[in-house]
Amino acid sequence: MATTTKSPVKKNFPVLQMSCAGCAAGVENKINSLEGVNRATVNFANATVALEYQPDKIDAVTIQRAVQSIGYDLMIGEEIQQDALDEIHRQKYNSLKKRTFWSLLLALPVVVIGMFFMYMPYANFIMWAFATPVVLWLGRDFFINAWKQLKHKSANMDTLVALSTGTAYVFSLFNMLFPQFWQRKGLEAHVYFEAAAVIIAFILLGRLLEEKAKGSTSSALKKLMGLQPKAVTVVKNNGEQTEVPIEKLVAGDLVLVKPGEKIAVDGTVTSGDSFVDESMLSGEPMAVRKTPGEQVFAGTINQKGSFRFLADKVGKETMLAQIIQRVQDAQGSKAPVQKLVDKIAGIFVPVVIGVALLSFFIWLVLGGESALTHALLSFVTVLVIACPCALGLATPTAIMVGVGKGAEKGILIKDAESLELSQKVNVVVLDKTGTITEGKPQVTDELWLDESAKPVLASLEHQSEHPLAEAIAEHFSREHTVVVSGFQSITGKGVVGVVDGETYFAGNRKLLSENNIAVTEDLTEKADEWSQSARTVIWFSDSRKVLALLAISDKIKETSIAAILQMQQMGIELHMLTGDNEPTARAMAKQAGIIQYRSEMLPHEKSEFVKQLQQQGKVVAMVGDGINDSTALAQADVSIAMGKGSDIAMEVAKMTIISSDLIKIPQAVRLSRQTVKTIRQNLFWAFIYNLIGIPVAAGILYPVSGFLLNPMIAGAAMALSSVSVVSNSLRLKWKS
Q1: What is the pLDDT at residue 1?
Q2: Which portions of the chain are predicted below pLDDT 50?
Q3: I need a labelling partner for 612 at 20 to 30 A (CA). Which of 201, 236, 598, 665 fits?
Q4: Beta strands 536-541 and 546-553, pairing class
């Protein structure tokens, strides 16, 4: 009997107890080594793993156990409660805040004594008394985590901190208790309690600031999550109103929305009249009027009126839930540049320990009288100053802020790769209908040679799903219908059908020419006149002669011309593609301000055109909204779907513009450019910091200038490096 293979499961799980980029690399490598896991991507910045696995080969519990075996944990469960996760982060932040406060308070007298009163009576014992709780109690997690890593034959940032502070503390304790060991050799017994205490205090402070800043990077997502109310008012069949939790709402329930309330789920208005603020979903500031039959969406805010609506989509099916899921997926994804950084982070800690040991032995051999002191100091300082976290945070924090900012503006970005690639776009290909234009075509002119055929045209177009056919069917909605047989829709040309034994054609001039239907000169002139004023001409005929000419117009969106101008000013080459005839396309392109256009394009020709541009070495973004655009969208380097278009176009696209406003395209390109610039800045400073800091800590400047870096300053610099990277990413929020 044949067995059916289950389709892969894609899920995001929070990862607990990670303290640095090395931890993220370790968790990722462990999960990816498991049989049945297709792909795992760990994001250190938001502490999540994006998983794709085969449910018939492995389950979430097995993956969780594997992660636990190397000293970390996964939060799994069918429904991970965001509140529970927030509570864990809140407890972690509060604990970190307390430990940071007490470590700074206790480290202060140690620094003062160590720097200014080191020869006062019992100075060493007083410093030991203050430093011990900082190192062994407030900094205990560093040692616990380092031990866990050692048991699993790996190392992370905690290993560096534990080794450096532990070495300084134990060495100082030995010198305090047995000073005569050094005095017999004619050396002074130095203690470094202040270095051990201050390093822990500064690193805790750095992690506190980092945790706070990392929380800010996901603020856009938290705003989206906060849009859904916790409870709704359901109207029962007998008219009774009951408040029920959002989790218990099911499709088909009748929901009452009062003035000022948030709409809980997607649905259709059944009674009432109001204006709804949809700005958090679409980025559009204008409230939208809602009357019976109109769609409403979860997370939008009702204004003055009240209305009732029928719940259509609940839970994960709502538009808001899908947006949140997309933002989470995108924020958790990795930009291509991150792959190199991950490799470096994975080997960073062992390399740093190697450099520290090397500097220790070089100082021990070449250090002269103070060889051991200098050797220990350089060992401790190298371990303290190294910062894999700055490298690990450089890319994901910028991606999180960039994707979150996009979501706030109504630009949904599918993944980090799309965000990184968008800044390279130098050609934008625009579909006309629904992209440049409103996508609401209307019949503006008609010329009838036989008005008795109106019911035939209405019936014929009623069977087609093309937007132009819908416009004609709407225009003749009052005509009685007739039975159409042998209906055919011919892509890019029109429709054919048989009524009472006679064949009828409705479409473009090409359709009539192919079927040898004669066209008079005066009709050709009228069609040309309409075409030159950006109207689409529809020809209607029987098998012998033309019966009518119709002109259909689709207005250019108010913001399209401004958006096109902005893209041209950004150095982007623009092309317009349309199925319309040449004169109509020319007139529309002229109105929109586009020089390069193609008319009478079939769906496969659009995708071929995109391929031709790519073969010229251009990075192409395709913008469309219909099913007929999906092949071109799939071909493009960056595909952008207009949110009010088809689901297929949105599924294929790398970006979705929720409001269908073309002005969002230059905004998306600008956002991509700003994000990539921020990533480059972050990576530059993270690499430079480590490339300069580690050799200086090892004592490379000592032979030239006699300078040796103080471990306390190294600790402060290390804390500052991570905070500066995250803070630089947060600057993205305030850029326009």
Answers
A1: 42
A2: 1-3, 645-646
A3: 665
A4: antiparallel
Ramachandran bin of 49, using left for φ above 0, alpha for ψ from -120 to 50, beta for the remaining angles: beta
257 DSSP β-pair partners:
307
User: What confidence tens digit (pLDDT) does each residue in 258-315 have?
Assistant: 888 888 888 999 998 888 887 666 555 567 888 898 888 888 888 878 899 999 888 8
Q: Are 413 and 403 in contact (CB under 8 A)?
A: yes
The helix (H) or strand (E) run that includes residue 350 is helix 336-366
Residue-wise burial string across 575-591, b where 16 or more C-beta atoms lie within 10 A, e elsewhere: bbbbbbbebbbbbbbeb
Domain ranges of the chain: 229-261+266-313, 411-438+556-658, 442-553
Six token digits for residue 556: 């250019």
Catalytic pick among 415, 431, 554, 580: 431
Q: How many helices (H) and strands (E) does the chain have?
A: 27, 26
Which 3 state secondary structure label does DSSP give 246? Answer: helix
Long-range contacts of 284-293 (CB under 8 A, 24+ apart): 284/410, 284/659, 284/661, 293/268, 293/269
Tokens of 248: 């218990």
- Sign of the dihedral defined by the CA atoms of residues 292, 294, 299, 303, in that order: negative
Residue type, 336: P
Are 387 and 182 a contacting pair, CB within 8 Å?
no
Strand runs labelled E in 113-265: 231-235, 241-245, 254-257
At 112, give phi and psi (nearest 5°): -60, -45
Q: Is 461 exposed, middle or buried (0-12, 13-18, 19+ CB in 10 A)?
A: buried
* Beta-carbon contacts of residue 569 (< 8 Å; ≥ 6 apart): none
Q: What's the pLDDT at 198?
A: 84
Strand 596-598 vs strand 573-577: parallel, antiparallel, or unpaired? parallel
Q: Note the CATH number of domain 229-261+266-313.
A: 2.70.150.10
Let me know if 647 is a catalytic residue.
no
The residue length of the chain stands at: 736
Closest-CA residue to 227 (of 284, 134, 300, 121): 300
Where are the strands (E) in 423-493, listed by range? 427-431, 442-448, 485-490
Fold match, 411-438+556-658 / 442-553:
no
Mean pLDDT of all residues belonging to the chain: 83
Cβ atoms 273, 306 nearer than 8 A? no
Q: Which residue has the tokens 């087609």?
A: 464
How many other CB atoms are found less than 10 A from the CB of residue 235? Answer: 16
Entry pTM: 0.70
pLDDT digits (tens, 9 = 90+) for 486-504: 888 887 788 999 998 899 9
Sign, CA torsion 523/526/532/534: negative
CATH architecture of the domain 411-438+556-658 equals 3-Layer(aba) Sandwich (3.40)
Of 275, 296, 246, 268, which is closest to residue 254 (Cα–Cα)?
268
Residues ≥6 apart with Cβ < 8 Å to 216: 730, 733
Tokens 């399209």 correspond to: 560
Enter the tokens of residue 440: 């609401």
Contact 544/534 with Cβ under 8 angstroms?
no
Q: What secondary structure does DSSP assign to 658-674, as a single string? A: TT--TTHHHHHHHHHHH
DSSP letters along 24-62, please?
A: HHHHHHHHHTSTTEEEEEEETTTTEEEEEE-TTT--HHH
- pLDDT for the residue 646: 46
| The pLDDT value given to residue 568 | 94
Asked if CATH classification 3.20.20.70 holds for the domain at 442-553, the reply, yes or no, is no
